[in-house]
Write a structure and sequence with these properties.
45% strand, 4-stranded antiparallel β-sheet, single chain, 6-stranded antiparallel β-sheet, mainly beta, globular, 382 residues
């Protein structure tokens, strides 16, 4: 049975910095002081990037040795120094939104799926799927890389040589092609997030999460968020959090959780009305789920119930990506918001000038990595 949705108390205004502690009973809002524009995260290194990587809206990845970024190819930077380790030739057609890194390999999925040696950038193999896979988030383990295409196919390829292990087309009776937006893997299951289109252009859609057997691709269950008429959607893979999958309803303006063994919805927490919904699902650290959205708020949620522990508006711009590093939550609103994890107070803001944050984040130890339209950065987290 689903838990009741957390309630809100009153109408939130538009101060630049606002935090609210909300319980199921609906506590009030309070302004947060101490919102400075300083830089609490120390810049460890800054490496200028070529135009083909500048301004990418993709998500960096790291294996603790190098940071990998995608533009019209893949580039790798040394984690400690920021020196460029290698760079691949251009992709054939598209720019992947995500990379997958596992077992000394970097996987990039677009019109072609590529595997590169993580240390040298040498191409190991390539594979041509049925359609473009650049819109989705891939996942990998020591056995396989998993990805989806615009035609709602999910693939598993052998990590070693790219040989197909299985492929499945979801929604065989759906009238419109619907892109697979992301893959998450845990235990013996692969979870595919699909933006199910009810109109040719996807204006009317519903967010679908399908659980697939990791070994065979057999569908185990399917959860659909919305009917199409109410126009809901999903554009990132869910976050695996214990028994739950945490997801973001991009059109329905909410975060929600699904039981990853049954497919039943457990809770739903609305974001501020009047804005597009969140792009990215919550991330979990030390028993708290952190998230941000296009309503310009950063949230701390109780993962089991969706109850809002605090929410803060560090800037007026909406946020696409967020991450936890050290004692802080980072969010990307073109600038960089940095908030205290425990209280939600604003520690500071960075990149408020001409140089803007464009990418998502990768985290390793006490460092967070990101891209602007000029350079790749490593910051030491507070």
């Amino acid at each position: 049975m689903a838990h009741p949705s957390p309630t809100r108390s009153g109408r939130f205004g538009a101060p630049a910095i606002l935090a609210c502690s909300l319980a199921l009973t609906g506590a009030g809002c309070q302004e947060v002081t101490g919102g400075t524009r300083g830089g609490p995260a120390e810049v460890v290194w800054r490496t200028p990037v070529q135009e083909r990587f500048a301004g990418t809206t993709s998500v960096p990845e790291t294996d603790g040795q190098r940071v990998y970024v995608t533009g019209t190819g893949v580039a790798a930077f040394d984690v400690q120094s920021g020196a460029k380790a290698w760079q691949t030739p251009r992709f054939t057609e598209s720019i992947p939104t995500h990379l997958a890194v596992r077992g000394g390999r970097v996987f990039a999925a677009e019109a072609t799926v590529w595997a590169f040696d993580a240390a040298t950038g040498r191409e190991l193999w390539r594979y041509a799927p049925d359609s473009d896979a650049s819109l989705g988030q891939s996942a990998a383990d020591d056995r396989a890389v998993y990805f989806g295409t615009r035609s709602r196919r999910v693939y598993a390829l052998a990590a070693a040589d790219g040989a197909p292990l299985w492929t499945v087309r979801l929604g065989a009776d759906w009238p419109h092609d619907s892109p697979v937006k992301g893959i998450a893997a845990a235990g013996d299951t692969v979870y595919a997030a699909i933006d199910r289109h009810y109109s040719p252009n996807g204006f009317y859609s519903a967010g679908v999460i399908a659980a697939l057997d990791r070994a065979t691709g057999r569908e185990l269950w399917r959860h659909q968020n919305g009917t199409g008429a109410d126009s809901r959607g999903i554009i990132r893979a869910p976050t695996v959090a214990g028994r739950l999958l945490l997801a973001a309803d991009h059109k329905g303006s909410a975060f929600y959780a699904v039981d990853r063994f049954t497919g039943e919805e457990v809770w739903r927490t609305p974001t501020e009305p009047g804005f597009a919904g969140p792009d990215s699902p919550p991330v979990v650290a030390d028993g708290v789920a952190y998230a941000s959205g296009n309503d310009a708020y950063v949230y701390a949620l109780e993962p089991a119930t969706g109850r809002v522990l605090w929410r803060t508006r560090p800037a007026m711009g909406g946020s696409v990506y967020h991450a936890v590093c050290g004692g802080a939550v980072f969010n990307n609103f073109q600038g960089l918001g940095i908030l205290d994890r425990q209280r939600g107070t604003v520690l500071g803001r960075m990149f408020d000038g001409d140089e803007r944050v464009t990418s998502g984040f990768a985290v390793h130890g006490d460092r967070i990595f990101l891209l602007t339209h000029q350079a790749a950065y490593a910051l030491r987290c507070p």
